[in-house]
Design goal:
single chain, 409 residues, alpha/beta, TIM Barrel, Elongation Factor Tu (Ef-tu), domain 3, 2 domains, 8-stranded parallel β-barrel, 6-stranded antiparallel beta sheet, 11 helices
């Protein structure tokens, strides 16, 4: 991890051990994840008791912190299991609990008294009085609602205790509802978004039916792709690092606990470099073009700045899917004597130009001059997932580096 001499934090998501390792290898100061209960992402693998202890150890060995989400809105019967769960997290050594419910907050103070409490964005914190009240109740940090402008955040910072930390999402998927509190999924599918089981009906295609024309529908659409009435854009604030710091945000939070280790690596690395550059350059700060380009190398929806600049529209009306320009084709396991030992992920060929992203580093390109398989045979293509291969490189490539190939489309 890149060492830093400034007070701000890059906070990265992890849905499993691989994502955790990516976050740590590519520069996260802290990682947030969930156990098997009480987290808002049931689609992720998440962490059982053994994995949680391992995760804490990995993070602390890297000098990073580890936060655990307990941010569902639990029902009465679920509360019976919560004290033991909280005690287990404190015993595992987690650095903070992210909670949304006031009752959960009180239980955390009782059963995990030595673990910091961070109030989740699900709490819906939009003013300084709420932030101050939560601080007085024992919160060390508030994760502000996503519907906040820079001016709103600056006022909260100015009117709250200086040791109350402020965390805001700066990158990733946005939810059409207020601070993630949504009932559409519950109504349409029976899956409760406020207990981590959202079916994302906001991303579905919708059509209009006329009651007297049975079996006929009339698309309410922008184009042939359909209409996406609630389909929010992804947030990307990489162009606004100075404003993020100057308005008083302590922790820059990246959304994505249900996303891949590759996503975690690329986004963490980009914000790591942008933040460190800001402190190095001061008034001369300028975002390096390669950093912004990196965020187009992951799958994403159309980008927006959310509500940071005011009420900017955040709806995608042209499509409901992801924009994807690159594929991960290999992971570097070792490098010695000019040979890169890799584990293949997607097909690539001799002659392909691959984009390499080293841990906490700056990307560069290499051309595949040859490929040797596990049998020592020279081959022209690498079509088999997870196959161990060797390719030459005059440039040393550290373990954990990602190899990417640009798509033709």
């Amino acid at each position: 991890m890149i060492s830093k001499n400034h007070p701000n934090e890059i906070l990265s998501p992890a849905g499993d051990i691989e994502c955790l390792q990516s976050a740590l290898n590519f520069g996260a100061d802290a990682v947030y994840l969930a156990g098997k209960e009480f987290g808002m992402r049931t689609a992720s693998k998440n962490f059982d008791n053994d994995d949680m202890a391992k995760a804490v150890k990995l993070a602390h060995e890297k000098g990073a912190k580890l936060y655990v989400t307990c941010n569902t809105l639990p029902r009465n019967n679920e509360l019976l299991h919560l004290p033991e769960y909280l005690e287990g997290l404190e015993n595992a050594g987690v650095d903070a609990l992210i909670v949304a419910d006031i009752g959960v907050m009180e239980l955390a103070k009782r059963y995990a008294p030595n673990t910091e409490i961070h109030m989740s964005t699900q709490t819906g914190i939009v003013n300084y009085e709420t932030a101050r009240t939560l601080y007085n109740m024992g919160a060390a940090r508030v994760v502000l609602a996503r519907e906040m402008s820079f001016d709103d955040i600056a006022e909260i910072r100015a009117k709250t205790p200086k040791d109350l930390e402020i965390e805001c999402f700066v990158h990733g998927a946005m939810c059409v509802s207020f601070s993630g509190r949504c009932l559409i999924s519950s109504y349409l599918t029976g899956r409760d978004a406020n207990r981590g089981d959202c079916a994302q009906p906001c991303r579905w295609k919708y059509h209009l039916y006329e009651e007297n024309r049975d079996g006929q529908y009339f698309p309410v659409e922008e184009n042939e792709g359909g209409t996406f009435l609630y389909n929010s854009r992804d947030m990307c604030m990489i162009d606004y690092i100075p404003q993020i710091i100057q308005c008083g945000i302590t922790s820059l939070k990246i959304e994505g606990r249900a996303k891949s280790a590759y996503y975690t690596a690329v986004v963490t690395n980009a914000y790591r470099h942008a933040l460190d550059d800001y402190y190095k350059m001061g008034n001369d700060y300028k975002l390096q073009p390669w950093i912004k380009a990196e965020l187009d190398k992951i799958s994403h929806r159309e980008y927006s700045t959310g509500f940071f600049l005011g009420n900017e529209p955040g709806q995608v009306t042209s499509n409901g899917g992801y924009i994807r320009h690159y594929d991960v084709v290999a992971l570097c396991e070792d490098y010695s004597d000019g040979i890169v030992h890799i584990s293949q992920r997607n097909k690539f060929l001799v002659g392909d130009v691959l984009d390499v992203l080293p841990p906490s580093g700056i990307p560069f390109e290499i051309t595949v001059r040859s490929i040797v398989n596990e049998k020592g045979e020279s081959v022209q293509a690498a079509p088999h997932p997870m196959e161990k291969l060797q390719i030459p490189s005059a440039v040393p490539i550290p373990a954990g580096s990602l190899f990417r190939k640009q798509r033709n489309n």
